[in-house]
Amino acid sequence: MEGGKTGSCENMKILILDTTDNKKISVGLKINNNKYILTQKITSNKTQIVLPMIEKILKDYKVKLEDIKEVEVNTGSGSLTGIRVGMAIANTFSFVLGIPVKMIK
To answer: What is the value of pTM for the model shown?
Structure first.
């Protein structure tokens, strides 16, 4: 992993955020290189949908916030507001948990 800040890959848990699309939001977990993605179609405010989705996927896979070692956020082309929502959430997790944010496209 980048800069060695994320530890070994064994038992690695990474939160994945993609809020770039105006029609859907995807959140996921990468656990030991396996990806688990939850996608939801949206018609309204992303900020009111994405946090409950994160809570659900963490609960479904029995992952605690403190188990997350990195956040990956999609910063590729898409809705500027959506990108800002994803980055704000990723940066908040980074600040609170003391973990790195990795921007992906």
So the answer is: 0.86
